[in-house]
Design brief:
Length: 182
């Protein structure tokens, strides 16, 4: 199925949001391509902690280190995603966003989850579909996917839907072993 070398068990046990954040955009893509989709929709159920890892178009630029440090900060606006499995094959979810000031944490930008072919490599993945009437038009153009790279740790590309298909923009991770802000 995946022709890239799989993550060795000892390396997989050392993967965390922090260690992933130190990897390059290309290394994250290789890790994703070698990974498998979750065994079931229930594998991501709950409130996993999220982290934005690397942004494609600023990779290597001086601002990249600043963005990575900001993404690791407890003040970063995105905390992760909350998932609810409705069956082994389908579910829903929503993003957890911190808005400074009186609004605090908000659940914004819902998505539908389903298994399908990755827009990145055509292999099986868990797709997060934002094309829902409740979302603003610009959010409906987002295409996320995730695969499990270690038990309870998921990696995925965030992509932008264009006329020629989804274009990868950044990598993010979700860790079910660490509870995000509920």
């Amino acid at each position: 199925m995946h022709t890239s070398a799989a993550v060795e068990p000892t390396a997989a046990s050392e993967l965390t949001l922090d260690t992933l954040a130190r990897r390059s955009y290309a290394a994250l893509e290789a890790l994703y391509r070698a990974a498998q989709p979750p065994r079931s929709m229930h594998a991501v159920d709950g409130v996993p902690k999220g982290r934005m890892l690397a942004i494609r178009y600023i990779e290597g630029a001086p601002v990249s280190r600043l963005v990575r440090a900001l993404a690791a900060s407890p003040r970063f606006v995105w905390d992760g995603k909350t998932f609810s499995a409705h069956s082994e094959e389908e579910g829903t979810g929503i993003n957890r966003i911190r808005i400074p000031g009186a609004l605090g944490r908000q659940d914004l930008f819902p998505f539908h989850t389903l298994f399908g072919a990755s827009a990145l490599d055509g292999e099986p993945t868990l797709i997060l579909d934002y094309d829902l009437p409740r979302n603003p038009p610009w959010i409906r153009k987002v295409h996320d996917e995730i695969r499990e790279i270690a038990p309870g740790l998921f990696l995925g590309p965030a992509m932008w839907k264009t006329a020629s298909g989804p274009t990868p923009l950044l990598w993010f991770a979700l860790d079910t072993r660490v509870r995000g802000d509920a």
